[in-house]
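Take a protein:
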Amino acid sequence: MKIFRNHTLYIYTDGSSLSKPRRGGIGIRYIYLDDSENEQRIDIEEKGNIYGTNNQMELKAVIVGLKNITHQNIPINYNLIEIRIDSRYVVDNKNNAIYSWSKNKWTNKNGRPIENSILWKELIKQINKVKCRVVIVWGKGHSVTFAQLNSYCQGFANFFGS
């Protein structure tokens, strides 16, 4: 079963937050098929934040993954970026951030401020900067296929959170 397509850049991201004291980390892995259809991987080492929550680290991982694409010298022409993540928070709220919250002055339907609005604004900015379509796909973090590719990100997020 082929899980990667040509002309698509895959970004696996994961965020982690550890307690006592609270600190967060992120992990990022780029995967693409080269001209010979061989799978290529690039792993990113990036520290997280002191006091970062899990949701903040999940958002930051996606933001940093998009922001760092230009620094990776990825030698393929891609027309789609598919971000694979195990965070329902990011997947379920991306469209709210783009289409609702941004138009409602970053408040919810009850008039309360949106949590992590600074990070959501940065995510929208990074999505708009790339010159192709971006989709964010949820995968169960411990499912076999997803976990094999996402485990690096989780381990790295935990390492940099410690």
Q: What stands out?
A: The domain at 8-161 is CATH 3.30.420.10 (Nucleotidyltransferase; domain 5). The chain has a mean pLDDT of 85.
